[in-house]
């Protein structure tokens, strides 16, 4: 299941900054109120919230449990801000979900899909001034039980322009 993504500014390796979400139809992470995370999306049906509250402010942390193994939690779900996306849930540590979602700080994923299971692949397409042109990333579970995109040794690196003549201003 490859999907097209474009790198915004991958200068180093992709950092393990993402969220884990439950399987199901794509759901919008965009809030109706700026700076607010909503209790919506497929992942919210796979966990138990401590209250009936449906809207959470930026920087709020909600401790959720997993119905199939309530003794293993609770796990933190953090409402955080993502540049150009607004409020999004960081639930990368909610072990029962076993999912990666579509947000990385340097990558824009196709909005048609927002949730990816362990082993799912995505395709990163580097911007024109970067190389390589593209590479695959895979959703994986880390030793600490978090879920993140693994890019292997790949990264988008900016191409340097080689001057044909020496510029005397350069030293």
Notable features of this structure?
171 residues; 6-stranded mixed beta sheet; Sushi domain-containing protein; 0% helix; mainly beta; disordered N terminus; single chain; signal; 3-stranded antiparallel beta sheet
Can you tell me about this structure?
With 171 residues, this protein is mainly β. It has one domain (4-158). 0% of the residues lie in helices and 35% in strands. The protein has no helices and 15 strands. It has strands at 4-7, 36-38, 55-57, 61-64, 75-82, 86-90, 99-101, 103-104, 107-109, 115-117, 121-125, 130-131, 134-141, 147-150, 157-158. Strands 8-9-1-11-13-14 form a 6-stranded mixed sheet, with no helix packed on it. It has a 3-stranded antiparallel sheet with strand order 4-5-6, with no helix packed on it. A hairpin with a 2-residue loop joins strand 8 and strand 9 (107-109). The chain is elongated.
Give the SSE map:
Blueprint: E1 4-7, E2 36-38, E3 55-57, E4 61-64, E5 75-82, E6 86-90, E7 99-101, E8 103-104, E9 107-109, E10 115-117, E11 121-125, E12 130-131, E13 134-141, E14 147-150, E15 157-158
Parallel strand pairs: 1-11
Antiparallel strand pairs: 1-9, 2-3, 4-5, 5-6, 7-10, 8-9, 11-13, 12-15, 13-14
Number of helices: 0
Overall average residue pLDDT = 72
The helix-strand sequence is: EEEEEEEEEEEEEEE
How many E strands?
15
Helicity level = under 10%
* Euclidean distance between termini CA atoms: 49 Å
Which structural class is indicated by helix and strand composition?
mainly beta
Region (Disordered): 22-41
Signal peptide: 1-19
Keywords: Signal
Protein name: Sushi domain-containing protein
